[in-house]
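Supplementary material to the annual report.
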Amino acid sequence: MTQISGGAFFVATVVKAIVFFTLLILCVALATYVERRLAAFIQDRSGPNRVGPVGLLQVVADGLKNLLKEETWPTAAMRGFFLLAPAMAIIPGTILFAIIPFATPAPTRWGYVEMIVANVPIGVLYVLAIASLGVYGVVMAGWSSGSKYALLGGLRGSAQMVSYEVGLALSLVPIIILAGDVRVPEIISLQQPYVEGPGTLGVWLLFPLLIGAFLFYVTGLAETNRLPFDLPEAEHELVGGYHTEYSSMKFSAFMLGEYAHLLTTAALVTVFFLGGWDIPFWDGDNIRVAADGTLIGEPAWWKTLLTLLAFTVKAGLVMASFMWVRWTLPRFRYDQLMDLGWKFILEFVTVYIIVIAAAVYIFDRSGLEFGPTYAAALTGVNVVVGILLLFVLDRGRLVHGASRQTEREARARMLENRKRERERALASALAAPGDDTYEGAG
Amino acid sequence: MAGEVKVVQRPGPEGSYLRAAAKGLGVTLKHLVRPYKVTQQYPDEKWELAPRLRGTHRMAVHEDGRAKCVGCGLCPTVCPVNCIKLIPAEDENGERYAAVYEIDEFRCIFCGFCQEVCPVEAIHLGVHYENAEYSRERWVYDLERLTEMEHPVTELWDPADPPSE
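Predicted assembly:
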């Protein structure tokens, strides 16, 4: 079967774009509801349960409320940028979805249709390029509001997102080393159940790249400004952070952007580490596009729908785990955030890349077949690194308490005092011979 | 609660953040799956009220529907916030009754002195608190509204704890 081409390809792409964008926005709306319910359950409350069945229409009610609210224009705001910022918050999160494969290719009369809006050949690099645009919405909103709280929020946001982007990008390097390709469908077929022949590892990359997955997850949290990294909107010190001055639908746009970004990050974790749309232990969905554009495997509509369901379930679970983390961990202090980003994650991920690269090199040289055994060996390497991380590296070094800060300050003060005393003793020893030999007099 | 002090071991500066975070996630997961909810679905579920709760007044009535009040004037006298307005009158049989009896529920502090002082057990406080109104005037309860109330009346003393001599 060949790929759909010509006018049919154009029509198929437009249809896919519209359908997936609508689904994404629907999921975003649902995510706000799920987040509130989950938060409530964690805190032994019920959450929204009045509007519609089990409160599902709460989303509609909130949307209507925001539409009908007054739109405010602060006098000090710069109009153009103030209007542009909410759009810049939504766009990167939504267009990232273009490269995420949702399901196996579906067969049609005109050829097969890949279930991905745009299968760009630079997949992972596209992710990194677009994800870094997310910071512009925050910075623009903070700067153009003409409010000091918003400005501080925007500043923090830019510093944080720029810092953690490095870790995010580097934590994807091991995947590229293993896959030897940056196209996203290739990364998924790498994780499918093992069959004879090149290109399948047999397990999800979560296991052979356990630490990489963890680092991607953590930096992903920081990139989407979720707790414990939500300093740009630290409400106890910055009112509302970068969107303090926004109201009505412009405020909603920031919320939509945040959740769209969150969904995208969950989808990326699914694609890179949880096998994407792959159904575990079943090789019926081992369908891939060969280099010459033909399809390897048997496509079917029911397979497409089944794998779409698998993808949704996985991404949903990752989303739920993001929310679970949010309602568990308290926010970091700003110095902790910067220490973690620059003094730990950057170094750790660099060393991790070297370890994985060395392991891959050694396995390849020792003639280990690419497959489950290979994955198991790599998992072993990760477990060793993980134990090192949990029991050796993370002893008050990752995120240290306030007590350590004060201890460090007390030590610095003590050293300072000792130095001053020594100087005073020296000065008085020099000044001893006569009364008129002060420094100023000479 | 008897004086038991729970000493919490603070994590030292050498503790592991990741292991502590994992422990915290365990705690929240436990609450997430627990069916217990503290929220009370108020209009659907209501509090169990104590029999001695002092709430909205009600006036006791005779079997023929007349208010028991004899207009003696003790309750407006004892009322610490002056929220009872009473104008007594006398009928053709020479029996005294309240021509006007109004209680301003906004001013009332629900001390229960009126119920305590009433010689004929006419005015009572009630076990009832849901009295929202659209206007301030509606908060002044006249005799008709006071006699129409149907909620249980407040017990001023715990029956298990009789007043001393």
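Chain A has a mean pLDDT of 83.
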